[in-house]
Amino acid sequence: MTLPPIIAALKKHKAGVILITLQIALTLAIVCNAVFVIGQRVATVQRPTGMDEQNLFVIQQMFVNAPSGNGAAAVEQRYAMIQGDLATLRGLPDVESAAAISSLPLVQSSNNGGVDLKPNQSNSTARSTFYSVGEQAIHTLGLRLIAGRNFTAGEITHDVHGGDYEPPVTIVTKALGDKLFPAGDALGKTVYFNGGATPTTIIGIVARMQTPNIGFGNDYTWNSVLLPTFPNDSYTRTAVRAKPGRMAEAMREAHKALLAADPMRVLAGFGGLLGIQPFSEIRAKAYRADVGMAILMGVICVILLCVTGAGIVGLTSFWVGQRRKQIGIRRALGATRTDILRYFQTENLLIAGAGVVLGAILAVGLNLWMMKQFQMDRMSLAYVAVGIVALLALGQGAVFAPARRASRVSPVEATRSV
Amino acid sequence: MFAYYLDLALRSLKRNPALTALMIVTIGFGVAASMTTWSVFRAVSGDPIPQKSAELFVPQIDNWGPSGHAPGSKSTQPPDAMDYTDAIALMRAHRAKYQSAMYQIADSVMPKHLNQSLTMVAGEAVSSEFFPMFDVPFEYGTGWSAADDANRAHVVVLSGKLNATLFGGRDSVGKVLTFGHRDYRMVGVTRDWNPQPVFYDVVNTGGFSEMAGGIFMPFTTAIAAHQGANGTTNCQQPPAESGFKGLLKSECVWISFMVQLDGAAAVRDYHQFLVNYAATQQQAGRFTWAPNVRLRGLMDWLDFQHVVPPDTKISLYVALGLLLVCLVNVMGLLLAKFMRRGGEIGVRRALGASRRQIYAQFLTEAGMVGLAGGVLGLGLTALGVAGIGLVMPRDIAALAHFNASLLFATLIVAIVATMLAGLYPTLRAAAVQPAWQLKSN
Lengths: 418, 441
Known about the structure:
The complex is a heterodimer of chains A (about 425) and B (about 450).
Chain A: H1 3-11, H2 14-46, E1 56-63, H3 72-90, E2 95-100, E3 112-116, E4 126-132, H4 137-141, E5 145-148, E6 169-173, H5 174-180, E7 190-193, E8 200-206, E9 224-227, E10 235-242, H6 247-261, E11 265-266, E12 275-278, H7 279-286, H8 288-322, H9 324-332, H10 337-374, H11 381-407
Parallel strand pairs in A: 4-9, 6-8
Antiparallel strand pairs in A: 1-10, 1-11, 1-12, 2-10, 3-4, 3-7, 5-8, 6-9, 7-8
Helix pairs in contact in A: 2-8, 2-10, 2-11, 8-11, 10-11
Chain B: H1 2-15, H2 17-45, E1 56-61, H3 84-93, E2 98-109, E3 119-126, H4 130-133, E4 138-141, H5 146-150, E5 155-158, H6 160-167, E6 176-179, E7 182-190, H7 202-205, E8 215-218, H8 219-224, H9 243-249, E9 256-260, H10 264-283, E10 293-297, H11 298-304, H12 310-339, H13 342-350, H14 355-387, H15 394-397, H16 404-430, H17 434-440
Parallel strand pairs in B: 3-8, 5-7
Antiparallel strand pairs in B: 1-9, 1-10, 2-3, 2-9, 4-7, 5-8, 6-7
């Protein structure tokens, strides 16, 4: 079978051919970009926070009767209340450890600032999240300390309230350490926070710890600083590690024990910001929009491919119906059934081929436009390549049924009028 | 004649039921995907206060100077929010018709009955002019007075929703509410007022927040009570002094500000006032840079703050792309279908039908496909709007509703789009030469 007769036949249906080519091209462009969005969202959702999230739950609550202000008495009383809660939690049979922490990865509430190499630096060397932590934090969160040491009990201060981010020692993530000291020798080095002048020594490095915010434009997702400043506020966040497999029990016990210890606290509501939640719930909530977007794009892709596939089936069926007489003549002149099948398959390959070439250009153009409009990343050409193969396969799959019907046209049709 | 075309269209559509179904389903899905995502887009990008938005403006004052801009960026935008010093100076100057400094507050509310558990409520610290400026409707009572602002009165206004939760929706004006540690007298209850986006304070609420705006208290009272800011506080430098007092003295930005200005002259004057104010600060040595101020209209401001989430836009564009493909598909199918009826067209033309009548006949057929697709699309759109909460953030998805306007829009888009898609096939059908058709048959 040679191409010229096919092309000659296609010229008879110029408009139809152009439309189906255009449809395949648009489908390819949209599907490539939608699948790219899905791929990005899935990658985002799957990245580990750096914590051991199994058996980890979080208590976010507010003391109603905690004193306000920064007077020494108020600070001490709040500290006593929070330590009281921690002691209650640590005493529970199913709790392994508990730690006070100002924020957690993915909870979307953060204290961010700059980390500098020189005192009073006007432009920070790196942006980072500051986590203020009490004792047992690294163990409770399950962070992996890969160099240096943990804070000692004596290093953790509790008499600062907000404002003070310049303690003598700190633990940073490897990502932040490497950003500040590209030689990879951050341990033992001195840094300054928020353009301040107080030197802080890096005493430990954790492998990974994500920042609380996951929104667009956060380019310091892995830059975290742990400060040994006990979070002292009437609004508290506590990370609790349950004994393996005992999380549900531990959460129930914690709820009961905390309310028994002090009923004057808000332990529920506020749009799910307060309460006792497994970390998995916080993760699901944080990534809900990303998962949703991936599903939405997936649904649209499926509809799109179905529409295009069905469109090819419909249009080819029409053409087959229109050409029954010609097919009959060809059969009568000696063409085999396979020849007829091949004819329609080749014809579809030609149309789909033109469609995917145009579609590939459109796909890249659409990606460039989305990069400009929505700060999207550059799409790997692998997506386009896979898309091309998929659409050619879709075309061949869709054309098969009508083409087979064509191949079954009897040679006797040649003698009948339409 | 129209009835006859309808009859012809029905006959023709019945002749290829599979193909007709394919076109209807294609239109249905394409329209439903577009209308579902559009309903969300419409809800989040709409004007939250159409009767007033042209008169509302957001002033910005650069209190950070050139070093406050992101390293390496060419942007010279002042911070998105205000520090306490500038907010108070603008309130005192009182140069606009109405003005309000605002920040988000949140605290516990004591239950009325012991068997209820404590709840947490978010709201906004605002000036007395907030209520007339935004035409806030009241179910009971009113806002507070300017004297209450000056006296730091312990008064609050509750949202209708919170009043329903706490007081069963009864007239609670005059009752006392314990918010945080303090008692406040209730002076008003709003009537179902929870604009989305929370246009008056997008910086602190993030734009969409079902929790926002439960309770309103005087800005001055909240400051005096050291009621902490429950939003975004951005500091270029850490405050020299710790705590709330330190925050008030700092250059940290955390306060939203909005003014009402009637007319272009008022806008010009206010802009000049901002420039003069910044110049005064420069002369006083507080700013070491030339005045850098902005005065954006509300809709500009919402656009500038990217209140419409990018995902909402991407979804809409992708869904519109889907609709386009569906239309191309239907166009191809209609073309094939119409072109096969050369014989029929030839006979009709030979019997005296004009081109115009052929147009009418085939456009009627396309319109019927569109109508059927639209009806299917209506069902699918209703399903889509109901299910969009599964895939979009709840605060945003909750704003999309299936209402009469969406219903009509769906039908009209389906019919018009299909007729547009049918235009070219119809043109081709009408161009059929009757003589040639009759001869070849």
